[in-house]
Prior knowledge:
The chain has 259 residues and is an alpha/beta fold. The chain contains 7 helices and 15 strands.
Amino acid sequence: MYLVEGADKAALIDTGYGIGDLKGYVETLTEKPLIVLITHGHLDHVAGAGQFEQVYMNHADITLAKEHSMVEMRKAAMRNSAPQLLAGLTEKDFIPPFTGEFLPLQDGQTFDLGGVTLKLLALRGHTNGILTVLNVQDRTIMLGDACGVGVLLCLPESTNIEDYRANLINMQHNEPLYDQVLREHGKFESPCSVLEDCIEACDHILAGTDDAVRTEMMGLVAYRAFAVDEDGKRLDGKEGNLLYKPEKVYASNHSSKSK
């Protein structure tokens, strides 16, 4: 999650798993009127939205967000990733799902917070509706889960590698607008070259020359484009990496890659 404050308003970008009093904590950080921008509909980004009134999200992810906001789905995810934390929680710790209407959020949309402008830029791949957030004045882009060290393109809601590559190429037109890249997992920051690294990963996957390291995570079997060390870093020292399914490499008019 990120909190961006301008002279007039503040924007909370994503809301986490929806555990504890997120709104109360945010109010200790800012007294400005608050808007909430959800980058995409996965449970670790949208599940805390139920505490807020003015929530924006790309409508392409509404069905996904409703499913992922369910408390039982959140618990199931935590049993897999953080069982010790789950054991210490009660029902009251879980923020109820968002029941309002998500305000529309789309590519090119801007928000003036007062001396701070946020611009939404689409980078479809991880989900259909995923958006990135550019802080225009700070020349900082929050790529979130859309592009990073282990982009999950192995999910049912993810696009194929061929289409994702085209979307990355399109995002390159925005590179002159930022000098810093922030993400939402791991060490939370990447060099600007992460975009080119992920394009390179797509190129190798499409050519069948990637490392194709079989990986099991969250009950799924996927393939990592480039081999990594025990800390998850690419062995060649570069940053961007992808996890994909062989049947979702090419657009529908191509044959699937076999493993």
